[in-house]
Design goal:
The protein has six helices and 23 strands. The strands form five sheets. It has a six-stranded mixed beta sheet.
Length: about 350
């Protein structure tokens, strides 16, 4: 091997090839640190602006600051074994300073340096919070009963379905789809929604759960960038008889498992046989299994159950449903139809 191949042409020190390590290190920036980093945060919900769009922020202020500083550090490709110590101190409400100690190896030579980075967190209300504060909405969902008022449970369950749809939209990244408010009326609830997409999703979910029918009534409210803007009012009518109701027809009792508004899917409470029939005025609702009472069983013989009336504590005998094996000391769930007690669960 010649002298030319083994000597650094710049300093004359030994070199495996070309410039030696110290001379090569002198020619490069082994690390570049941005002296200033910044982010725009919504002061209301804490989301972060990325470019021209917004994203929900899942980290606290210090974690965000550290992430911003790290994103502003670029190591030369030949740096290995790099390490960093970072201390962050607040200067004001929206400004902090990071103090860095960075080390590593480059061309086999230990390198280190100390740096300071200014961290600026700007404040700007995000697109979603702007809509919320401005009471923006694109649709109203009116949930009512067919010829009746909603029960407290139906109102609560419909509201839960609406909030679940909002959670699904937010988790899917649709920040601008949310429930603005849920207002109680004397006959039901009104769900105010920010977008037509989440509105239709809620209408579908509520209608499917309750076996209800729905209609929509769009109204043109203006134009934006040549596109027509509509607000839609959806009307959901929960049927007279819904899932979980216990009905009486021709002295027999049935548990309703579903309804499409005209046809009831049921199960005979004594024989457990399924049956479907049309909803007629002669069919009487005696209650819903949510409202059932617990009654203690005193004995069970054949097709007869002895119970204690949970209100009067008097002993009674009532028919035993097929498949009921509850013995003395156990409990069954009952509904009242006047003086008659009906077993609806065991």
């Amino acid at each position: 091997m010649s002298i030319k191949d083994t000597i650094c042409p710049r300093c004359g020190n030994p070199s495996e090839e070309g410039l030696c390590g110290p001379c090569r290190l002198h020619e490069i920036e082994w690390v570049t640190v941005s002296p200033r980093v910044e982010a725009i945060i919504c002061p209301t919900c804490g989301s972060r602006k990325v470019g021209s769009s917004w994203a929900d922020l899942e980290s606290d202020k210090e974690s965000l600051a550290r992430s911003l500083v790290i994103d502003g550090i670029v190591f030369h490709p030949d740096v290995t074994d790099h390490a960093m110590e970072m201390t962050i101190r607040d200067i004001s409400v929206n400004r902090s300073k990071a103090y860095l100690k960075i080390s590593g190896k480059c061309y086999g030579i230990p390198v280190q340096g100390e740096y300071q980075v200014l961290i600026v967190l700007g404040r700007e209300q995000c697109d979603r919070c702007c809509r919320i504060s401005g009471s923006y909405y694109e649709g109203i969902i009116q949930v009512r009963g067919e010829g009746r008022r909603l029960t407290e449970w139906e109102s609560r369950r419909a509201a839960e379905i609406a909030w679940q749809a909002e959670d699904a939209a937010q988790q899917g990244g649709d920040r601008l789809s949310f429930v603005s408010s849920i207002d109680n009326s004397k006959d039901g609830i009104d769900v105010i929604v920010s977008s037509l997409g989440i509105g239709q999703s809620i209408v579908t979910d509520i209608s499917s759960f309750f076996g209800a029918r729905s209609t929509s009534h769009p109204k043109l409210v203006g134009e934006k960038e040549g596109k027509r803007l509509y607000r839609v009012t959806w009307s959901i009518r929960l049927p007279r008889i819904v899932r979980g109701d216990v009905v009486s027809m021709k002295n027999d009792y049935y548990l309703v498992s579903g309804s499409d508004g005209t046809t009831l899917r049921t199960k005979h409470l004594l024989t457990q046989q399924p049956r479907s029939f049309r909803d007629e005025e002669t069919i009487r609702v005696i209650g819903n299994i949510r409202d059932a009472e617990e009654a203690m069983v005193t004995y069970h013989e054949g097709d007869t159950i002895g119970i204690l009336d949970p209100k009067t504590h008097l002993p009674l005998e009532i028919p035993s449903p097929k498949g009921c094996h509850t013995q003395a000391g156990g409990v069954v769930n009952i509904l009242r139809d006047g003086e008659m007690l009906v077993v609806v669960g065991y």
